[in-house]
Write a structure and sequence with these properties.
It is a single chain. The protein contains three helices and three strands, in the order H-E-H-E-H-E. It is α+β, with helices and mostly antiparallel strands. The chain has two domains: 65 residues; 56 residues, Ribosomal Protein L30, Chain: A (2-Layer Sandwich). Strands 2-1-3 form a three-stranded antiparallel β-sheet, with no helix packed on it. Helix 2 packs across helix 3. It is rod-shaped and about 105 Å long. The protein starts with a helix and ends with a strand. The model has no long low-confidence stretch (mean pLDDT 79).
């Protein structure tokens, strides 16, 4: 009979511990949900604020198109093969729009295009167009 009372007491203790653990877990989840909700709200507001300012910036860019005669262009010809070159050099050649040898393309004279041309200058023929 003493053994039965001990097992009943142990079972009661285990049940009480499980309840306490589940209550703690529920409290932690509730706190975590509140924290997530608080963090999510400012992100939505900042996205809305960014969208409100975005059309103004786009309008400024669209308002100032350059005429084709004023844009300086370069004529670039690939005179050496891109095979067996560094991956970054192949990427520069592809970025300039060149696919095969002796192909000529017209590119706008921008600092980005100048940088790619300078990196692979040993493979190219460049003329002002």
């Amino acid at each position: 009979m003493a053994d039965e009372e001990k097992t009943v007491k142990k079972a009661a203790k285990k049940a009480a511990l499980k309840k306490a653990v589940t209550k703690k877990a529920a409290v932690k989840k509730a706190v975590a949900k509140k924290a997530v909700a608080k963090k999510a709200a400012p992100k939505v507001e900042t996205v809305v604020a960014k969208e409100a300012t975005a059309p103004k910036a786009a309008a400024k860019k669209a308002a100032a198109p350059k005429a084709d005669s004023a844009v300086k262009k370069l004529s670039v010809t690939l005179v050496r093969s891109k095979h067996h070159r560094l991956a970054s050099h192949k990427a520069c050649v592809a970025g300039l729009g060149l696919r095969r040898m002796h192909q000529t393309v017209q590119v706008i004279d921008t600092p980005e295009n100048r940088g790619m041309i300078n990196r692979v200058h040993y493979m190219l023929n460049v003329e002002e167009a």
